Amino acid sequence: MTDLTPITALGADLPRCARFGPLTLTETPGLALASLALRRGTAAPALFGLTLPSPGGWVAGAGVAAFWTGPGQWMIEAEGRAEHDFAAEVKRAAPGCSVTEQTDGWVAIEIASSAGADPLIRLMEKLVNVDAATFGPGRATRTALEHMGVFLIRRAEDRLAVLGMRSAAGSLWHALETAASRLARPG
Amino acid sequence: MLIPHPLLGPRDAQEFTYLGDASLIDRPDGMADGAEAAFCDYVYLRDNPAGVHRELWFHEFGDRSWLVVTRNTVTHEILGAELAADVARRGR
Fold first, then answer.
1. For residue A63, with 0-12 CB atoms within 10 Å meaning exposed, 13-18 middle and 19 or more buried, which class applies?
2. Contact criterion met (CB below 8 Å) for A64 and A53
3. Measured in Å, how far apart are chain B's first and last C-alpha atoms?
4. pLDDT means over runs of 10, chain A (187 residues)
5. Closest Cα of chain A to B49: distance in Å?
6. Where does the chain cross the membrane (chain B) (predicted)?
7. Which residues, including other chains, have CB under 8 Å from residue A80's CB and lie 6 or more apart?
8. Which of A68, A70, A129 lies at the smallest CB-CB distance from B64?
9. Which residues of chain B carry a pLDDT beneath 50?
10. Residue B91: Cβ within 10 Å count
């Protein structure tokens, strides 16, 4: 059989990482994703000890996290488990729900700030029409970023994750890189 | 323009796609007597009020929910928004 070489969403052997002033952008190919939807008339399950968040929310537990994506729908995340069949684990934990594997459809870019919340807020103000001041830790939303649908997750005061379409990974990186590098310029 | 999403709060109107009159929720029964005439009215006949109008908006760049937005077509003032699923369930 042909020996296939795995590459990341941005097309390289290793995840891309770049620093612009206080902001560090890192591609995280290890993030496993599975969507979970309730069927009609069923209650939200307790999943891996998580209480599934209300609209606009994100919650993190031990190695897993979940964010709200729509009425009765959530995305479940697991850091570093993209190589495992994470959707099957979610399905076993929530047998009455509809679960779909999502990992390979997305590119995840984590943005860390070394100077607190302010650089992240200024980056958001440049890129998305979401009220950055109220988009605090534990908030997650889907919105448009340069005509692309993306999920934004505020993981902490100084951390923001952007999940975009894998096929548009290059465009998404370009948009984030351009905005972050301009913010980092003096003056 | 901001649309007051009932679950997510004020959101940029550019995240939404407009469909049309909220009466489109009331789809006629295709198997009933007179279905052809009912569907002709459903597809082609629409009030076009200058003033308060109830209309369907899809949160395409958001949580993908359908909303019924009450909007004044003269001033563009948005008077309210609710989930179309709630409107359909209780009947109009």
1. exposed
2. no
3. 26
4. 88 96 96 96 90 96 95 96 94 95 97 96 95 94 96 97 97 97 86
5. 31
6. none
7. A30, A31, A32
8. A70
9. none
10. 7
B65 forms beta bridges with: none
Domain boundaries, chain A: 17-184
The encoded tokens of residue A8 equal 């990341």
Candidates B64, B87, B89, partner chain A, best to mutate (most A CBs within 10 A): B64
DSSP H or E stretch at residue A86: helix A86-93
Q: Which residues of A touch B65 (CB under 8 A)?
A: 70-71
pTM higher than 0.95 for the full model?
no
Q: Do A70 and B15 touch (CB under 8 A)?
A: no
CATH number of B2-25+34-90: 3.30.2270.10
The helix/strand count (H/E) of chain A reads as 3, 11
Tell me, what amino acid is at B47? D
Q: Tell me if A153 sits within 8 A of A163, measured CB to CB.
A: yes
CB atoms within 10 A of CB B2: 11
Asked if B62 reaches chain A (Cβ–Cβ under 8 Å), the answer is yes
Hey, what amino acid is at A44? A
- Is the domain spanning A17-184 CATH 3.30.1360.120? The answer is yes
For testing the chain B interface, which of A54, A124, A129 should be mutated: the one with the most B CBs within 10 Å?
A: A129
